[in-house]
Amino acid sequence: MTELRLAAVNDREAANRVLATFLSKFNRRFTVAPLDSTPAWRPTPGRAAAERICCLKYRRVVANDHTIRAGASVLQLPPRADRRSYAGTRVELQLRLDGRLVVWDGQRALLALPAPAEPVQLRALSAARSNLGSRPPSVGYRPAADHPWRRGPITRRTPPVTESPNR
Fold first, then answer.
1. Could you list the residue range(s) of the whole structural domain that residue 1 is in?
2. Count of structural domains, the chain
3. pLDDT in tens, 10-56
4. b/e map 62-98, b = 16+ CB within 10 Å
5. Which of 42, 59, 94, 105 could anchor a disulfide with 55, C-beta 3.0 to 4.6 Å?
6. Is 15 within a domain?
7. Phi/psi of residue 79, each to 5°?
8. CA angle, 136 as apex, 119 and 123 as ends, to 5°?
9. What would the DSSP string read from start to end of 72-129?
10. Residues 102 and 69 occupy one common structural domain
C-alpha cells in the first residue's frame, strides 16, 4: 500500500504497472535459496485415498447386534460371508465431504450410505458433525445439599508440639 501511495496511483492499470516493478524488486531483496532443494511434499494419493483422508472421522465399537450409533441414528452392518461376527470390533465412521457415511474396518468398507439427493452444504456437514458427537451430552452432576463438597473446607486439628523427654 505504501508503494502505491508514494507513486500517487489512482486507477487499476497504474497500480498493476507499479506492482509489476515492485514485485521484481521485492523478490530480489528477500528471496533466500533453500538449504535442501528436494520438494517437501509427497505425491497426491489417488481419489479414493483422498476421500478417506479429507473427511470427519469417528471411532465406534460394534454392538452385539451388529449395529453402531451415529448420533441419534443406529446403523445396521450387513452380514459378510468371510466373518461371523463384528461384535466388539472397533470401526471408523466417516462423514465424507459429499455427505456420504462410510463405515471402515481396517482397509475395507463395511457399509456405505449414499449421499443425499440434494447437494450438501458445508454448514450442514458441520451440523451433522455436531450430531455425531463422540459421547451424548452430559446432564451434569449436582451433589446433595449435605454432601461433603458443599460443606466448607476441612480443618484438621494438629496435636500440640511437646518437648520429648529424651532430650
1. 1-29
2. 2
3. 899 999 999 888 988 999 999 998 899 888 888 877 777 788 888 88
4. beeebbbebeeeebebeeeeeeeebeebebbbbbbee
5. 94
6. yes
7. -70, 150
8. 20
9. TEEEEPPPBTTBS--TT-EEEEEEETTS-EEEEETTEEEEEEPPPSSPPPHHHHHHHH
10. yes
Which helix H or strand E contains 14, and what residues bound it?
Answer: helix 12-30
- Asked if residue 24 is part of any domain, the answer here is yes
115-158 pLDDT tens trace: 766 655 555 655 666 666 555 555 667 778 787 777 766 666 66
CB 93 within 8 A of CB 132: yes
Distances (CA, A) of 4 to 20, 31, 160: 12, 22, 81
Please state whether the predicted TM-score (pTM) of the whole model is above 0.70: no
* Structural domain includes residue 157: no
